């Protein structure tokens, strides 16, 4: 009986005309049929800025990520240039003594972000610089906007965000990335930038930004974790919603956004796909701090192969339709891609 089975197999046992495994049989073939690839052109590298000089401070909940003084930011910017990473993004760790209820430090033209922008653009004018617009790194209550009687005020906040954007544009930023989720801020910022002559400063809108538990390590990195009063569910989106993301994106585009972002990343790949298919505009994903921490924690425990998980997760964004990804893995994955 066994001999008969063997005879049958030799003659093409199951009689299949389609055998998808044939295309997977060797690396040369897998490379030829691969639909999506990750390249260094897909990466935006977020960095944390601290006061001082010559310091690199580890972020406990994000192993491998450090807060850098401005001079060290310039060194990492050089690394970005060397690796061919197109753009970097800045987030400040503001000293507690500089935080107040209205986030005044956001409007200080010499704040950490503005100094980092100036220093990097002076040395590397060709490197793209993205700056976040929102008040949370600067407010004593840790919210992205102004607060009255426990409520986040929309229009009053937008007026401040406009000023913050102008200050960042004056410092030389290339891309304003409003991450605050106030209504109407993209339009207000665009009008103000144009009026001030910053016609070429782009707006990358955090259009579909969800109220997510995955931001935990970031709040640790910028020191707002213990400060945050309550949560951000009155302005960031409900994780149960999908159609609402399209509405948010449509509004930001009408208001003048040059590109849109979905955030967090992996848990929201369906949103990236819907946005990309609906609008066909440059769409970015933010693989946030908690996603980075999950991969690193498991890898450091020996529970998964961190290098492979890193590349697979980033490739998933491309497959979902993203044009690029903000990722804390940017320098490592760029190094790996270069070695291949
Ligand atoms: C705040 C902001 C957050 C992130 C980017 N900008 C956190 C928040 O909304 O609380 C999160 C990034 C990350 O988790 O990596 N405006």
Automatic annotation (TrEMBL):
It catalyses: 2 5-aminolevulinate = porphobilinogen + 2 H2O + H(+). The lineage of its organism: Bacteria, Pseudomonadati, Pseudomonadota, Alphaproteobacteria, Hyphomicrobiales. It comes from Methylobacterium persicinum. Its EC number is 4.2.1.24. Homooctamer. It comes from the Bacteria. It holds the Pfam family ALAD. Belongs to the ALAD family. Keywords: Heme biosynthesis, Lyase, Porphyrin biosynthesis. Coiled coil: none annotated. Pathway: Porphyrin-containing compound metabolism; protoporphyrin-IX biosynthesis; coproporphyrinogen-III from 5-aminolevulinate: step 1/4. It is an enzyme of class 4 (lyase). This is Delta-aminolevulinic acid dehydratase. InterPro entries: ALAD, ALAD_AS, Aldolase_TIM. GO terms for molecular function: porphobilinogen synthase activity.
């Amino acid at each position: 009986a066994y001999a008969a089975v063997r005879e049958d197999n030799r003659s093409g046992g199951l009689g299949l005309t389609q055998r998808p495994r044939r295309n997977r049989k060797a690396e040369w073939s897998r490379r030829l049929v691969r639909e999506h690839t990750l390249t260094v052109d897909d990466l935006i590298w977020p960095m944390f800025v601290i006061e001082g000089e010559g310091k690199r401070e580890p972020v406990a909940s994000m192993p491998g990520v450090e807060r850098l003084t401005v001079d060290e930011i310039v060194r990492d910017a050089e690394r970005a240039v060397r690796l061919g990473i197109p753009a970097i993004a800045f987030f400040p760790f503001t000293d507690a003594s500089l935080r107040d209820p209205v986030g005044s430090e956001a409007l200080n033209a010499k704040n950490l972000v503005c100094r980092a922008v100036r220093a990097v653009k002076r040395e590397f004018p060709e490197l793209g610089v993205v700056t976040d617009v929102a008040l949370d790194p600067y407010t004593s209550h840790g919210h992205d906007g102004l607060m009255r009687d426990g409520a986040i005020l929309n229009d009053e906040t937008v007026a401040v965000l406009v000023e913050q954007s102008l200050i960042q544009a004056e410092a030389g930023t290339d891309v304003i990335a409003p991450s605050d989720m106030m209504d109407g801020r993209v339009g207000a910022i665009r009008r103000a930038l144009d009026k001030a002559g910053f016609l070429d400063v782009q707006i990358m809108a955090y259009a579909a930004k969800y109220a997510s538990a995955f931001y935990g390590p970031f709040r640790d990195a910028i020191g707002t974790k213990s400060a945050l009063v309550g949560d951000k569910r009155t302005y960031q989106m409900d994780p149960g919603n999908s159609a609402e993301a399209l509405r948010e994106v449509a509004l930001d585009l009408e208001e003048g956004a040059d590109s849109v972002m979905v955030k967090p990343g992996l848990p929201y790949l369906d949103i990236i796909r819907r946005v990309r298919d609906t609008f066909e505009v440059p769409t970015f994903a933010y693989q946030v701090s908690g996603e980075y921490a999950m991969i690193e924690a498991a890898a450091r425990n020996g529970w998964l192969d961190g290098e492979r998980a890193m590349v697979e997760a980033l490739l998933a964004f491309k497959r979902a339709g993203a044009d690029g990804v903000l990722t804390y893995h940017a320098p490592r994955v760029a190094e790996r891609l270069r070695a291949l």
